[in-house]
Design goal:
Elements lengths: L14 H8 L4 H10 L3 E4 L3 E6 L2 E6 L4 E7 L1 E3 L9 E4 L5 E4 L5 E3 L6 E6 L2 E8 L5 E7 L4 E3 L6 E2 L9 E6 L2 E6 L6 E6 L3
Antiparallel strand pairs: 1-2, 2-3, 3-4, 5-6, 6-7, 7-8, 9-10, 10-11, 11-12, 13-14, 14-15, 15-16
């Protein structure tokens, strides 16, 4: 099941409601959103995510488009120093761009990306021969921190309130540090 990020599930319906949303955005951003006739916006710290129909993109504070409105999915970073946005392009390929629109992780490198949390991102390479999703954890530089095949399962940790990352191997469950997922905080046997 594919996870989609919706920038705003309830876009403003009237010009007055739209005006209320846009009044908190810099004039340049508001003008760009109006000119592009955006359906919805989501204001981030250094930029604004915009949606027009089924496509989305990113504009900076000056109103310049830094990620064209051609993406299917944009997942903003949370709890992260680096500002890497995971994006899914119109060909279904995942990649990551920074707040300036520079591609930091090439499209198609991974089958799926869940979003950066604590400058870490859960990625997968699709399914293995046994039908399991082969997952790994990368950092914001694209380095693999927890390699593919290390665990039989790594749970999604993006924007979750958990203090650790849960991973499983055989009949054991491991709780990995979000600051350094190579550190096992706790381990326990899976309940049967």
């Amino acid at each position: 099941m594919e996870k989609y990020f919706l920038i705003d599930t309830t876009p403003p319906q009237s010009p007055q409601e739209q005006s209320e949303v846009l009044k908190h955005v810099a004039l340049e951003v508001a003008e760009t959103c109006n000119r592009l006739r955006c359906d919805a916006i989501r204001i981030e710290e250094s930029c604004t995510l915009i949606r027009k129909g089924r496509k989305c993109g990113i504009i900076n504070k000056e109103g310049r488009i830094i990620v064209p409105i051609e993406m299917h999915v944009i997942i903003p970073p949370v709890n992260s120093q680096g500002k890497l946005f995971c994006t899914k392009d119109c060909q279904g390929r995942w990649g990551a761009v920074d707040e300036n629109g520079k591609i930091r992780i090439s499209y198609g490198t991974y089958h799926n990306m869940w979003g950066f949390d604590h400058d870490l991102c859960l990625v997968d390479n699709g399914t293995d021969k046994k039908g399991f999703t082969d997952r790994a954890i990368i950092d914001s530089d694209g380095n693999i921190i927890v390699d593919f095949g290390t665990y039989s399962s790594i749970w999604d940790f993006y924007a979750k309130p958990y203090s650790s990352i849960v991973a499983e191997r055989e009949d054991m469950k491991y709780y990995l540090s979000k600051e350094n997922p190579l550190v096992i905080i706790k381990e326990e046997r899976n309940k049967k």
